[in-house]
Structure formats: structure tokens, C-alpha cells
UniProtKB/TrEMBL annotation:
GO process annotations (BP): regulation of DNA-templated transcription
Highest taxon of source: Bacteria
Keywords: ATP-binding, Nucleotide-binding
A GO CC term attached to the entry: cytoplasm
Annotated protein name in UniProt: LuxR family transcriptional regulator
GO molecular function terms noted in the UniProt entry: adenylate cyclase activity; ATP binding; DNA binding
UniProt organism field: Micromonospora endophytica
Xref: SMART domains: HTH_LUXR
Keyword Transcription assigned: no
Amino acid sequence: MGRWRFVGRRAELERLHKAVTGTLGRGIFFTGNAGIGKSRLLREGVDSLPAEAYAVGWIAASATTAAMPFGGMVQVLPVEQPQGLSPAGVLRWAVDLLQQQAAGRRIVLTVDDAHLLDPPTAALVHLVARTENACVVGTLRNGEQIPLPIRALWTDDLVEHAELSPLAPAETARLLTAILGGPVDGRTADRLGELSAGNPLLLRELVHAAQGTGEFTERYGLWNWTGRLELAPSLTDLIDIRIGQLSHGVRSVVELVAFGEPLGLRLLNMVAEETDVEAAEERGLITMVHSDRRLNVRLAHPLYGEVVRRQCPVSRTRRLQAHLADLLEGVGKRRREDLLQVAVWRLDSGTAQDPAMLIAAAGQAFARYDVPLATRLARAALDTGGGFEAAELLASILMFADRPAEALGVLDAVATDTCDEERLSRWLTVRGMVSYWGLSQPDAVEEIARRGTELTDLAAQARLRAFEAIMRLHRLEAPTALRLAQGVLDRPAASVAARELARCTIAHLQAVQGRLCRSAAAVDLVQLKAADWRAGAPYLRLAVELARGTRLALSGDLAGIDALGADEFADLADRGDFRLGSGYLTILRAYAARLRGRSDTAMQAALSACAILATSRVYAGLAQAERAQAAALRGDARQAVAAMAEADNSHSPNMAVLYPWLEQARATTLAAGGDLSGAVAHLHELVARLRADGFAGHETLALHDLVRLGEAAAPTGPTCSDGSRRTVAQRLTELSEKVDGELSPLLARHARAAADGSPEQLLHAADSFMTLGLVLPAAEAAAVAVRLLRKHRSPALTAANERLAVLLGCCDIVHTPALRAVAPTLTERERQVARLAADGETSRTIAQLLFLSARTVENHLQRIYSKLGVTGRAELRAALRTIPGHDDAAAT
């Protein structure tokens, strides 16, 4: 594995440069844990100093040189030293020699691992720090004894002292992208970031181990990690060094926490000596975490647990887990999660004998969307005699683990155990769910409908009708779906889960019809009842999120999409491998990023969604359609075409309700490939179909796509009684009175401004789009205004140009027909950027003059960066920070 590209740490680099180049600074020392990146930061910062202005001397302290006088200075001072000098004289000679070698340049004495310096070298470093025209920079490791002359550097205010924190999640993701040569799936970055705790050295070892075992795979241009961790010897040795030699008592504490975390402190003190617990905490092996009124104990680093668990013999592991289960059962399972913890300990220790406990625990794990754990527990429950209850739960979980065929086998094995109508209805609904969504069998709807007529129990009937309703909606049988769902709500005998599933069906239908306020109210009602349905039917969350996500997308509520992607369900779905949930939310993130003009983020999210949903047909076509949209936005027509082909191949006919999204993406793909007439014709066909289906919410977006292609004044829809046809702008105006929310009237206003050819109104529309955070349509509206003003040689053109430049400065690479019609060619832009940068223009000025994105400006300026002096680089970094959304890594 080669040298990794330096990523992030912009603030620390700035601080280092300021300490070296400032008039008052005498240097800085960075303190941090081993492997946190101190040495690399020091090297990157010092290597960028121009040799003509700075004389850099390196001191690499080590345990070997610590025992030798001036051992750390072997690369700086000559081997032969003057004889007969006192210790003070030797120090003065060394300082004078450094001044001679500097030849008038500023001395920068760089000390890596300063805690390992021998006493004479430490004294010399302190003396240099007091010398004019000199500064010292260095690193120290946490927990080590620091030589007194080094400690005095900051206690005497000679240098700054800074703690180097772990890499932030975004920096970890960028580092992974750099080393793997391509973008990394968000869940992969999060998991590796957690395991490494933001430590670059540990991250390096984790990636090295995963690459060595083939656990990294690339799909749709996105790197994914399977999650299976094979600890390489180098990584195990590294963790062993950190843990160090442990007494028997402290090792027992670490092992108990490794197998039981989060482990209550009270429980831990029942099985371990309190002095050993305190010793483990003092050594930084464990940490205390408050959880409500309970104080829990966790390992200080996730990898400690991986190493300790693997080194512990199997027999001891099972004994520890069984003992923990006995203890918690003995004190009483006071919290809901205690049951799950005991069940896992029982399962892992081989002492699980109670199928009822395992079923309850599997239900809890499923309600937390931890699909792998729920599968293990439900399987164990079935194997220990759980019967129908265990089979029903296991089949439901397997459906969402992308194993529908296996789920069907589990259900068929207990088909004869459906002794009453209540149990039969449960068996039929789970089997229908697996057959319809898991295996894409359309006749599952008819089977559910037929069997429902055979039942006499009203609650059992309601359960089947609720499932049939949502299946009918997904199959685009909206009137039937509405009738069935309303019937469930009107039936008092219906269970909470059946009623709320029916309400989700209605909420989804209301959203596509443009009744967004009613849809929001319906979803809120379902959420209020979550505590009543989540334990028994956690998969209902998918129906909730589909209804809510559809409404948010159709209303242009980007803040709502952000909130949806940041709530508890999103986190649980990502962590628990609940792919349908996390995949759909990732599609929404891509959609929001696209409307913001953030094509890089949109593409990465779309690719991630495609990878997550690759083995499922429920949302796979939708993910590929969003990938096509992102590719088209970037001007990548070839990838857009390929994505649409995969969308058509993977889209399930049983999810026909999603057709508007796919067909909009198809029109965008045609436009990206230059077939504007084909895109326009396709959108007109889509508008007609949406109008026939009563999908007014979707129709507004499709009509607005026509406006974006310059068709605001084009006729659309059926012929009126007077023989005329409404224009796109007129139809949008008509819909603005039917479709709820702020977006629909704004789309109509944009359409009227475009149809009237009014630059002023187009710019007003752009401002309104920006108020909603919709940067891309704002930029397109402003671009059309600029084109009209340019055509009429209006004096308002300059101001409009500046407004467009600011909007495009908020975007990444964006290529749409409206923008291509006004922006200069890429080749001409590159020539202008190079010319202006050479003339000393700032990046913001360049962006405003050329309508460029921030990233495009950065890419060109980076080529000039290496030719600038320290002052020029500082000015460039300051300029880059003024660009909205610029990448810190690019500045670094």
C-alpha cells in the first residue's frame, strides 16, 4: 500500500503556517494519540515551506536515540563535535552552526516525537525557540512523559500547544476515497470511521486488512465493504501494544466489557473487583457513558473489543456470556433492551432454551431494524421449538434481508399450523408480502383478495384488505386501493397495524394527487401510533417513509428531506442493514442534492443507492433513474443512458406507482444526449398519462420540466370546447390552485415569466427558488433571463450576469439545456480561468465573470498553487474559503 494522499486538517495546517511564518510566532507542538496523523501533518506543513526562505532541520526522536547525547540531532549536527566545551558551550556551538547552515533564512527546527528526546537535544530545542529568526514545531504523544525543556516551551509562552483531534467523518470519507481511487459507500465510510475512531493509522490497517481478504468490492463505481473484519497481524499487534500488559483482574474487566457492552457499571462491579475496574478506566481501556439513570461501561476503542474477543478462548467466551446472562436475569430485566441483551448472551453462549424469549428479542431487534441480529434470533427461536410465531417473524425478516425464496420455504413449512382465521390472515399477509415484493409475483394480489373473501373474522379480513390496498396502489390501481384502505379505516375491528398501513396507502395517494397537506396530516397520525405498531409490524415504516418521501419531493421540501435522512430510522436502517429503508432514503438524499445543484453529492448518493438496492427489485429501478438524473446533470449522457437501461431492467412492474420518476428521468436522459425534441415529446406523453391518472402532484413537475426545456408557451392537454388548447404555463397555473404548498404556485409563476419572455419576472422567480433552497431551478431561471437580456442588449445584463454567477458558484458541475444556452464553452472557460488567475484575480471574481462553479475554479487554481510563495498561498486559501460550499481538501 503506497503513501496516502494528505486529506483535511486545513485548520491545523493554517495554524502551523501561521506559527512559522507569522511575525510573533515561535512555533507550535501538536499532541495526540498514536496514529492520529501528527507526523504526517508536520511533514505536510513543513514540506510546503519554500527552501529559499526557510532552513528546515529535522529531528526524528526515537527510543534508540533517547539514550545518546544529541542522539536526535544526528541528521542536523556533524558527527564530530568540538572538544573541551562545557555543556552550555556545546549548546551555543550547535545554535551557531544552525545559523550558519541557514545562511540568513529563518530556521525551522522540526521535532517528531519530542517526548523521546534525549536531555541535551531537548535543551537545544528550547534554546533554539528563544533565538531570533528561529522557530520550533513538533509532535508529542498523549500519555508520555515529556522532557522538562520541551514542556517549558508552551508554559513559557514560546510556542503554541494544540491537541490534534481524530479525523472528522467527512475527512475519513475523503481519505478512503483517496486511497481506494474512487468514492466510498456512506455506510462503509461510517463503519470504518467508527472502528478506527478517526485514527488514520488504524484506518490504514483496517483498509489494508480488508483489501487483503477481498472484502472491498466496487459496484457502480462505488467502493463497498462487506463488514466482515479480518484482523491482520499488524493490526492485532498495534492494538496489543496499545492495550499493553494487563493484570488478570484488569484483563477480566476488559473481556467482560468486550462481550457485554454496553454493560451497566453496577452489573460489572458484581462480577469484577472495583479496583480493577478503576485501573482499566485509568489506563484508558474502558469509558463510562450515562444512559438515562444508568451508568454504562464501554470499551474506549471499538477495535479493542475486536482483538479481545478474538483472543479469548471459546470456552471462556461462552462461560463469560452465560455468567453475564445469569447476573442480569438475577437482578431483573428492568429495561426493555435488557431482554435483547440477555437473549444475545444466551444465544452466543449456547444456553438459549426459551423460544418465547428469543421471539421477543428477535422482534425487538427487528423493531430496531437490525436485520442480521433479528435473523439470528428468529432462526434460533424456530430451531428451539418456536413454531408458527417464530416462522412468521423469521419469514418477515428474511424478506427484508433480500432472501425471499428462503422466507417462502419457512412459511410453507408451517402452512398446516394456521389453525384459526387470525393466524391464517397473518400467514397469508406475510406470504403475500414475500411473493409480491420479494419475488415480484403480481398474482399475489389476486390470491390475497380471493382468500380475504373466505374469512369471516372482521379483524382478519381487515389485515388482508390493508395489504391488498397497498399492493393495488403500487400496481397503479388507485381507485380500488383507496376504496379498500378507506374500508379498513371504517372497520372498528381492524388492528392498529392494519389501520395505519391503510392510512399510509391513502397518504401516498394523496401526495401524488397533490393533496399534500392531507398527506402530511395522515403520516403524522401514523407516526403518533408508532409505539403501537412498531413492535408487531416494523416493516410498516417503509410505507410511512414512501408516503412521506413522495410528499416531500413533490413539495420541494429539501429541509424536510434532510430531516428525514437524519432521524432515528435512517441511522437504525444504515446500521442494521435494513437495505430497503436505507436505500430509499439515500435516493431522497440524491434528489435533494440534485435540486441544490450539488451534482457530486447527488451522483455519489445515487450510486450508493444503486449499490444498496442491487439485490432488491422494489426500489432498484428508482435508484437507477436517480443515477440517470445525476449523470445527465453532470453532462454525462453515456452514463445516463446506461443507468436508464438498468432502471428498465431492474424496475418491478409491481411498483408501477413509481413510473413518474422513471419517465421524468428518461426525458432528462434524452435531453442530455441532445435529443431535445424527443425529450419534449416524451414529457408531453407523460403529462397526458399523469393527468389521466389524476397524479396532479407529479404532473406539476413534469410540466415544469417542459418549462426548463423552453416549452412554457407550448400547447398541452386536450382540446377545449373552443378548439384551443391550454399552454404549459396555463396548465401549471390551473394546477397551482389544486396542488398544495409553496412550490406549485412558484412553478406556475416561473412558467408564465418564461412564456411572456420577461427577464424581470424570471429573476424574481430565481430569487423565490433560492428562498426554498432550490439552487438548480434558480440558476436555470436566471440563465434564461440573461439570454433574453443579452438578446436585447439590455443595460440590466451586467447585474443579471452577476446574479447568475453567484447561483452557479453554489453548484458543482451542472449541464442542463437552459445553462448550456448561456454559458461559454468549457474550452473557452478554461482559457479565461488560466488568464485571469495569472493576472491575480481571486476565485470569487473568476466565478462571477465566467459563471463557473466553485470546484471548477479551484481545480484550475490548484495548478498555480505550487508556484506561489507562502504569502500567495495564504491569499489563495483565504480566497477559496469565500466560495460557498468549497472543498476544504482542495484548498489543503
